[in-house]
Amino acid sequence: MRHSKWEERLRRFLFLLLVILAFASVAIALRPLIFRAEKTREIQRETRQFYETAEQTQEQLVEQKEIPYERLLTAFRRHNEWLYDVKQGNLTGPEAYAESLFDLTDYGLPDQTFGVINIPKLELEMPLFLGASEEHMSAGAAVLSQTSVPVGGENTNAVIAGHRGYGGYDYFRYIDGLEVGDEIHITNLWETLTYKVSEIRIIDPSDIDAILIQPGREMVTLMTCHPYASGGKYRYLVYCDRADGQNTTIQ
Description:
- The chain is α+β, with helices and mostly antiparallel strands.
- The protein has one domain (2-242): Sortase, Chain: A (Beta Barrel).
- It has four helices and ten strands; from the N terminus they run H-H-H-E-E-H-E-E-E-E-E-E-E-E.
């Protein structure tokens, strides 16, 4: 009789253990999906909030004939001019890429979101930050420091980096689906700038010359690791030029 009770307890214990292991397996399997869902909500929320801020700013620009956050816009333009004048001499490597040269809260903004990048071909829309720090890269796409801030203007090249997929979210995972002529939209506080893909290249990570400003051109360059899941062996570059006939609305 005692032996029978012991066997019954053992069976119950084993059954309970199997149930716990089953739940743990399901939780592990669902973890990437849960992370993706959370990251998607976070990115969509950040994007939506910025669009609301930009809409208010652009309405003020049109209705009141004044430039909101003019001090910040002036700082960006001077920075871009300075970069071109000094031939981006401080663009030396990862630490220079990550450093944030502007604290947007110093200019009256609520956080560090600079804008939104929209790539219709990929059905991709993400917040855009200044400085390719781990925090910024996790939250969206990031403009490499020591490259131009995308506010328009000749002799500029804003290099925008994004993960090639990270933690279940796509980021720039499918960037190799872009072709010459595809459009890229950058919305900042003052306007939406449209660029078209003009060239695609694969480079060595140390090839800094490939991401420099090209005189006379107004560009953004998308950058991510290549091939996918290679640990960053190479860099995949998508060069984009400002769309023909598009004029800035800011004087």
